[in-house]
Here is the input.
Amino acid sequence: MTLATGMRLVGLDGQSFRFDAGTLCLELLLTGGEGELSKWERLHTPGDLADWIPNSRAGLGDLVQVSAGELAATLRLRAALQRLAATAASGSRAFSAADLSALNEAAAAPPPVPVIGPALERGWASPVTGAQFLSMVARDAVEVFGGPALDRVRMCGGERCLLLFLDTSRPGARRWCSMDRCGNRHKLRTRRDRHPAG
Ligand SMILES: [Zn+2]
Here is the structure.
């Protein structure tokens, strides 16, 4: 959707690495989640979401104003997206109808309104509401889950790594969240297995 190439993440072990979720709807999953993912929860207040959006690939800068209701809607949409993406990555197409409805409901809201300024600069009608941002996320998800990109939704192949991404590489052979993290660990492990006496 934009030229952004990812976000800097820090693992629970403290390693910092760059991760490209490939598309906006999967990038939102980096803000946390339910169950085991709650260890990474970043969205405790509406301001937390407003602060996160400028770092995302949404391209909305700091124009988004989020209400408490919109934060709650974000957490619901995010949980649905998490289940849909994990299902897709497992190769199944047995999506929950309720999760698909959650996407449609968010997508039905009007998205941010593009504007052009006097110096021909492109921007957004301000303020952008949290619901408009969610519409953007949900419309992105409809495109991903309703088209050929669905086969490119993957979970990192690393042990205990739960990161989900859209593989946008031309050959479509991306296996890892990041070569600097799980890709490298896999390489080291394969090398060790080949030379057990090290
Ligand atoms: Zn990984």
About this structure: Helices lie at 24-27, 46-52, 68-89, 97-107, 130-145, 179-194. The first strand starts at residue 7 and ends at 10. The pocket of zinc ion is lined by residues 156, 158, 161, 163, 176-177, 181-182 (CB under 6 Å). Strands lie at 7-10, 16-19, 64-65, 114-116, 122-124, 128-129, 153-155, 164-166.
